[in-house]
Amino acid sequence: MIAVGIDVSKSKSTVAILNGDGSIRAKPFDVHHVADELQALVDYIKRTSEPPTILMEPTSHYHYPLLKAFTEAELPVCLINPYQMKKYGDTELRKAKTDKRDSLRIAQYALEKSYSLIPYTPQDQKYEDLRFLSRQYSQRISTLTVAKVQLLSLLDETMPGI
C-alpha cells in the first residue's frame, strides 16, 4: 500500500507519497489545479504497483478539482476533517507548519489509520446543490444581520432616544 497525503490550497496542492513502511516514495511536490497537472498526478498514482490510499482535507471548495479527478479515475480517495488532522499534529514537538510538512503528516496519518478511513462516495448533484444553496442562504442572513446592527448603531448615534 502507498499513502498519498494532499495539503489543499487555493490554486495548488502539495502532494506527498509514502510507501507502506513509512519511507518517502516521492518528496512533497506541488500540483496546480489545472486539468493537465491533475491528470499527470492521477497517471502517476495509477502507475504504482500497490493500491493507494489518498487522503486530503476538504478545504472550502478548493478540493473539488482533485476530488473530481480522483473519482473519475476510480481511485479511492478519503476526506479527513481538518480538526482531526490538527489534533493528530498536536502530538509533535515541533510545531512548524508548512505545506510540505502538512502533506507528509497527512500521508503518515493515512498509513496509520488506513483501516478506519472511509472512502468518499459522490452524492447526487441535487444534494450538493442544496448544500451550496444552504451555505449561501446562511451567509446572506449573517450579512443582513450585521447590516441591521450597524444601521441601529448609526441611528442611535445620530438620533439618540428615537
UniProtKB/TrEMBL annotation:
Residues 4-160 form the Transposase IS110-like N-terminal domain. GO terms for biological process: DNA transposition. One of its GO terms (molecular function) is DNA binding. This is IS110 family transposase.
